[in-house]
Amino acid sequence: MRDLTNKRALVTGAGTRVGAAIARALGARGMHVDVHYHRNEEGAEASCEAVVRAGGTATPRQADLSDPEATRELARAVLRDGDLDVLVPSAANFERVAFDAVASSHLRHAFALNVEAPLALAIECAPALRRTRGAVVFITDAALDRPHRDYLPYLLSKAAVRQLMEVLVIELSPTVRVNAVAPGTVLPPPGMDEKAIAGLVERIPLGRVGRADDVAEAVVHLASSELANGHELVVDGGHRIGA
Prior knowledge:
alpha/beta, Rossmann fold, 7-stranded parallel beta sheet, globular
């Protein structure tokens, strides 16, 4: 496994939830983490503090990833401070919309943040990642193999991220490794009642929904693995196999 001590990572959407857990886990490996956020400055500051407590260092980075130029400038700002070893495009649009209500605007929003922004970051960061023989770890979704209702734009965009991961393996190898983590149900959405959660848990062989740290551990593994390349690591407790 590659030693990540004193290496550098950019994690988008790192001011909250799964992104914050990823930043903290990388910090625990002694990394400097550039903590991206859009509006949640307070969350980003808390995430930076958590990275430091875990043993790393951190810098908050604000950018609206739905704006292509702002996305590219985020990468440039990070690279002005040095090279990059790990890129984790974690920020995502997770909008619920009924099938009959899907409009082109929903698709544009989902693809802008979930696909175009990660691709733009990968393109901008590729020269640095080649120099460091670094890694890109995308976040897809286990639901791509068991799709559910009312998330068509989101699921289409995440399917594109899976394909993006595979294409970048061809484009960036042999100097950059590219993988993805596909979480199952992690951090049930606010307002989900206990009965619904219990029904979900019954269909998961491990008997629990995921935690943000479960995803973060998988990201760290793929970021430090010397041979994993083009792999999508599913972290869903066996839900795909369960009833």
